[in-house]
Amino acid sequence: MDEQTTVEALGARTADESTEGLSLTPLASDMAKAAMERDGLTDAGLRVSVVGGGCSGFQYSLSFDTAVRPDDTVFEQNGVRLFVDSTSLPYLRGMTIDYVTGLHGAGFKFLNPNATRTCGCGSSFSV
């Protein structure tokens, strides 16, 4: 069973069936692919979700996942599959995930047009 058949069988949606957007910059894609390769995850994707917590009310969560869940929308950006659950999707529409390096280290940066307030660390937000 190929990926598209698996997605359809689970009831998940692919991004081309959806108007919601989530993008991963080329550098963020490269860093995600390198991390998956380093961990031996040849058929994984990046799960992007929103969870309660943080100093602004919500936090972003990134993890690797090999399974598409029934309520996921699946995006593909620069060769990386992104899995977003239906609860998180409204908070992430139009968001860009970048990878930045600076004096305080390196990591993924979330550029979310839906956030009305963010904290200093950049991983917590409110809408």
Describe this structure as you would to a colleague:
This protein is α/β, with parallel strands linked by helices. It has a single domain, classed as Hypothetical Protein Aq_1857, Chain: A. The protein is 20% helix and 42% strand. The chain contains three helices and ten strands; from the N terminus they run H-E-E-H-E-E-E-E-H-E-E-E-E. The protein has helices spanning 3-10, 26-38, 89-92, and strands spanning 13-14, 22-24, 45-52, 58-65, 72-77, 80-85, 95-102, 105-111, 117-118, 124-126. The strands form two sheets. The chain has a seven-stranded mixed beta sheet with strand order 1-5-6-3-4-10-9. Strands 2-7-8 form a three-stranded mixed beta sheet. A hairpin with a 5-residue loop joins strand 9 and strand 10. The longest helix is centred in the first third of the chain and has 13 residues, at 26-38. The model is unreliable at 1-10 (pLDDT under 50).
Q: Please state how the strands of the largest beta sheet are arranged side by side.
A: 1-5-6-3-4-10-9
> Based on helices, strands and strand pairing, what is the structural class?
alpha/beta
Strand content: 35-45%
Gyration radius, rounded: 15 Å
Helix content: 10-25%
Average per-residue pLDDT, rounded, comes to: 81
Total domain modules: 1
Total strand segments: 10
Which stretches of 5+ consecutive residues score pLDDT under 50?
1-10
Order of helices and strands: HEEHEEEEHEEEE
By CATH, the architecture is named Sandwich
What is the CATH superfamily label?
HesB-like domain
